[in-house]
Design goal:
Elements lengths: L1 H41 L9 H15 L3 H7 L1 H8 L5 H25 L3 H9 L4 H35 L6 H11 L4 H29 L3
């Protein structure tokens, strides 16, 4: 117990570092992953902006990034992170790799959520002369909203796990604390505490995401 009290200040810092990393990656996932997912959907066969070349290129790029294990992606992006931020250590540096991993992950979820929309509604909108932007804004996004929020919840939970991995190369956060105190110093109390903290955080994110998704679901 005394060990926990001693590292409590560092535990608080590590917790907020994890929130910072995950928060930045989620923001980037929404800003870039959401449009990419929509592009994958609307350029599919039979849709109003059908384009097999765009869909193929975007799809291959997304699959390429998703096929790389995150720990390898972390190391692979170190030169880019250093070029971008001037450092490879700390939560901001770790958020670069987390963001790159989050973009294709969320893009595929967005595409899957959009596929649940009744295509008859989209076809009707096209028939009355609605522009692509109007269809995306007034039909696809509102209809797919519950799935988008659920997908964002899944992405956030995955990023929490990835952030713990980022701690192994000096990314900060709860994972870094678990490695430094729990693993290197053989302190099981600290290790168990960090694991419990991660579990509580994941449960909170899952509950909140489910609650919001149900609240916006008008079906």
């Amino acid at each position: 117990m005394s060990n926990i009290i001693e590292i409590l200040p560092e535990l608080n810092i590590a917790f907020f570092q994890t929130l910072l990393m995950v928060g930045i990656a989620l923001l980037v996932a929404v800003l870039l992953g959401l449009p990419l997912g929509i592009i994958l959907f609307i350029t599919d066969r039979g849709l109003f902006l059908e384009n097999k070349w765009v869909k193929s290129v975007v799809g291959i790029l997304i699959n390429l990034i998703r096929s790389i294990p995150f720990i390898i992606l972390l190391v692979f992006l170190l030169p880019f992170t250093n070029l971008l931020l001037g450092t490879t250590i700390g939560p901001l540096a770790a958020s670069v790799s987390l963001s790159v991993a989050a973009i294709p992950f969320y893009a595929r979820i967005v595409e899957s959520s959009a596929r649940e929309i009744d295509k008859g509604v989209i076809e009707a909108a096209v028939a009355v002369g609605a522009s692509p932007w109007m269809i995306i804004k007034h039909i696809i996004l509102p209809e797919a909203k519950p799935g988008l929020i659920t997908g964002l919840t899944i992405t956030a939970i995955s990023l929490i796990g990835y952030s713990a991995m980022a701690g192994t190369i000096g990314g900060g956060g709860i994972g870094d604390l678990a490695i430094r105190y729990g693993y290197y110093r053989y302190d099981n109390t600290v290790m168990f505490t960090t694991v419990i903290l991660l579990i509580v955080l994941v449960q909170f994110v899952q509950y909140s995401g489910d609650f919001i998704a149900k609240a916006v679901n008008k079906r």
